[in-house]
Amino acid sequence: MLGPPGAGKGTQAERFAMGHRIPRVSTGDILRDAVHAGNEIGKVAGVVMERGELVSDDVMIGIVTERLGRPDAANGFVLDGFPRTVAQAKALDSLMAGRDPLIVLDIVVPESELARRLGSRMICEDCGHNADGKETEPGRCHFCGGKLTQRADDNASIVLERFKIYQRATQPLVDFYRTRPTFRSINGAQPLDRVTTELAAAVAAIANGGGGVR
What we know:
Distance between the termini: 11 Å
Strand order of the largest sheet: 1-2
CATH class: Alpha Beta
CATH topology: Rossmann fold
Helix content: 40-55%
Number of domains: 1
Order of helices and strands: HEHHHEHEHEEHEH
Radius of gyration: 17 Å
Strand content: 5-15%
Shape: globular
């Protein structure tokens, strides 16, 4: 799933993965876990992420290669946050050798709406889940009860920097995929459930046209 920060990739990826009983591979979650654990990758990634910049291609490709090699990803997976550059996309094409075709969904949302969403987005300090309006207790995660707080990379200056990085590094990725028959754009400015429905319909249409879902 592609799209700028705040487009809803994480929520939609989680919904699709749960509905199809396949793993959601979120590179953001993997990196945040590494930062929390304080391991070598986490130390490097933490500094970069706090500046709103992208972690290097080599690190990201290594993380995804290891994750997709696990048994639970053998029958399918949903990628959230990868690839983010053309170099990563080319590496993913190599990783997909021998698998069913890669389906690419680009969630499109106007910049003004993205800025509004990011400015109010909350995340659980304990489990890392993004708040989605289902919280039964204000300020608390409905999954684990942990405290909700604004993500460190969602303050105003970081948001602007992330927009710039997306336009510079990630938009060319959309152009890289756009001509493929397995590419679709989804209107992410609609209500959440409507986006979910359109996304599922797009995947089904592509899968029915040949090949399975991955």
